[in-house]
Design goal:
The protein is of the alpha/beta class. It contains 9 helices and 12 strands. The strands form 3 sheets. Strands 1-2-3-4 form a 4-stranded antiparallel sheet, with no helix packed on it. A 4-stranded antiparallel sheet has the order 5-6-7-8. The protein starts with a strand and ends in a 6-residue tail after the last helix.
């Protein structure tokens, strides 16, 4: 987990305040270290800005301050792209209650999108992903939260649940299913593991009572070492419920399939497991 420390001048691009410093911590190892990122012209990591110098004292936020930060994001505009984003039509983002975060430097430029995370039905935090880089940071807290899309899945109901490894994959699979069924109605809930394939044991243990209500739990995880290991864990945890969905040829995951033009095929693969029969093209 990273904590913002302060804004500094960037010695490389000349900006007076674009260098944001962060205090990073690993609770398991009991260590802390500083990094920095230039949000100006450089747009790159800069290492430890305090190397050889004294770092400022970091204010540790209270639980009330952390919750307030999460609640503040609700006031941001909904993430509603004007055209397909990552191959997914704009309307499919609406029901996931995502938000757009604006740049701290000008208050106007869209800087990141934020995925909501809850715990026990209450919003706890957001996983934010900058538009210009593949990285994440938390607002509020996402530690110990339910999987992404959990409250949405509860509202949809039903006896079949689909599980992906990432937030975009969950939204993409939602699109794939509707495309394959030829409908805009959401019939089958999709959730994403909170921290990728490695969190399947933690997530499934946390929502064990919820999973008992399903007849089928279909894993649509990444086609890589982590995803394959997570599939095996899922089968061991719930052997009578878990089914494994393959991915279209040369696709790593659901969003990859969408971007490769194989959204309908991905949806058909999932529906075959749902219906226990082959879905015609």
């Amino acid at each position: 987990m990273s904590t913002c420390v302060e804004k500094l001048p960037c010695p490389d691009c000349g900006s007076s305040d674009s260098l944001q410093s962060y205090l990073n911590g690993d609770t398991d190892l009991g260590i802390e270290w500083y990094t920095a990122f230039c949000h100006g012209k450089c747009w790159e990591q800069k290492g430890d800005p305090y190397a050889g110098k004294s770092a400022p004292v970091v204010h540790v936020r209270t639980q009330e301050e952390i919750q307030e930060a999460a609640n503040d994001v609700l006031g941001c505009k909904a993430f509603a792209p004007e055209r397909k984003y990552r191959g997914i039509p704009p309307r499919y983002y609406k029901s996931w209650k995502m938000r757009v975060l604006l740049s701290e430097f000008d208050g106007v430029t869209p800087y990141a999108m934020a995925f909501p995370f809850s715990d026990g039905g209450k919003l706890k935090g957001w996983k934010a992903r900058p538009f210009r880089k593949k990285d994440f940071f938390a607002i509020g807290t996402t530690a110990g939260c339910d999987p992404f899309g959990f409250e949405r899945a509860r509202r949809i109901g039903g006896k079949i649940l689909l599980v992906t490894e990432g937030e975009f994959d969950a939204i993409a699979l939602d699109y794939c299913l509707n495309l394959a069924m030829g409908t805009d109605e959401v019939k089958y809930p999709v959730i994403s593991l909170s921290q990728g394939g490695g969190s399947i044991l933690k997530d499934f243990t946390k929502i064990a009572a919820f999973l008992k209500s399903y007849d089928k739990i279909i894993l649509v995880l990444d086609n890589d070492e982590v995803g394959l290991k997570a599939e095996q864990t899922g089968l061991e945890l719930l052997p009578d419920k878990v089914l494994i969905a393959r991915k279209p040829t040369n696709s790593k995951d659901a969003n990859d399939a969408v971007e490769a033009g194989m959204a309908k095929e991905m949806g058909q693969i999932a529906l075959e497991l749902i219906y226990d029969k082959r879905i015609p093209d």
